Amino acid sequence: MSCWMPGCSALGMCRGLATLPITCLERAKDLKTRLGVLLHKPDLGRRISTSSKLQLGSRCRDSSREALEWRESFDQLLKSKSGVMAFHTFLKTEFSEENLDFWLACEDFKKTRSKTKLASKANRIFEEFVQNEAPREVNIDHETREITRKNLSGATSACFNEAQAKTRTLMEKDSYPRFLKSASYQDMTKQATSRGISKRSHT
């Protein structure tokens, strides 16, 4: 063992420590304590990470259980936030997510109370989803498009009702059945079913 001072032996270092002021020794102890805390922090991080994983796992299990309810009806799917997200992801694979986005925009539009905001929102939704050659044009007939256009002149919370209903019917009759048959949805229901069986076998 060598001393930190040139030409000093280990024994000399020990003697030197004895002559140091008390404050220096206290500072050294304090430094040791702080180093100990730092060394234990990674373990704390692991505990937090484990806790987060458990919470995430719990949320995933809840979503899986919900997934079984989505096949009961299209309404049941639309009532579930995770259901809407899963359906939206599926619609993206079919390049038809604008139908759901329009339906959601209409739901949000109905909650608007300010008449000024109602008019500006109505125009924005119409320009984005309804008018001919709109950036994200939804698949509705010419008559419904014209009715919606006329409704804009005196915008109310109901001015998109007909167009929204047509889009909803299209999704329910066309996209929804394909979603239920999709590999992603089948995987979710299998997970939920297997968890249910596993849970029953342990009780």
TrEMBL record:
Domain RGS: 73-189
Membrane topology: Lipid-anchor
Secretion signal, residue range per the UniProt entry: 1-19
Keywords: GTPase activation, Lipoprotein, Membrane, Palmitate, Phosphoprotein, Signal, Signal transduction inhibitor
Single GO term (MF): GTPase activator activity
GO terms (BP aspect): negative regulation of signal transduction
Described purpose of this protein according to its UniProt entry: Regulates G protein-coupled receptor signaling cascades. Inhibits signal transduction by increasing the GTPase activity of G protein alpha subunits, thereby driving them into their inactive GDP-bound form. Plays an important role in the phototransduction cascade by regulating the lifetime and effective concentration of activated transducin alpha. May regulate extra and intracellular mitogenic signals.
Protein name: Regulator of G-protein signaling 16
Native organism: Rhinopomastus cyanomelas
